[in-house]
Every structure is written in structure tokens, then in C-alpha cells.
Amino acid sequence: MEIPVTQYIKPHGHTKILRIVIPDECKPMMEKLAELNLHITCEALHRGLVAQYISHKEGDFAIMLSPIEKSHDQLVKMINDFNEEAFEGWLKDMTDE
Question: What is the pTM for the complete model shown?
């Protein structure tokens, strides 16, 4: 399956939508992320590192740092390892006043 990933481009934070192919078995988790208003973002860091995030309007819930050559595998891992209960607790903490 193909998913949209928002890439933040340095130095000014302009964005570009990438289309990334991930295994079809990630589909249920991607549907869950969308249901929770989460999306995938990324940015290239220095020295060949990539930061990938599971993002929400309240902030970045999860982050995965990896070398560029391992970024696809790490993205799939981050998606598959998503924990809804942990996210709900994080969101409650982010929105409590």
C-alpha cells in the first residue's frame, strides 16, 4: 500500500508530500492512525539521519531516528509498534489544563 508522508524541508520548514510504499499488512494500523487524526511526518537531519514521526495537531507522539538506508524498515516498525493506549494517555496529558 502507498501512504502519504509529509516531509519537512530545511532550512525554512517548507513541506512536500512523499508517497511511500509500505507492506499491505500495515493497512489496519494506518487506518487506526487516521481514525485518531495521526499522520506520518519526516525530516532529513545531518550526517545521513532521518527523523520520522507519528504526528498529531497537539505534537509529535512518536519519533524514530535512523540512517537513511534503514529509514523504510524503521518506518514500518514504528507504524506496527504504535500503541493506542499510550497515545491516549499522551493526548490526555497534552490537552489537560
Answer: 0.91
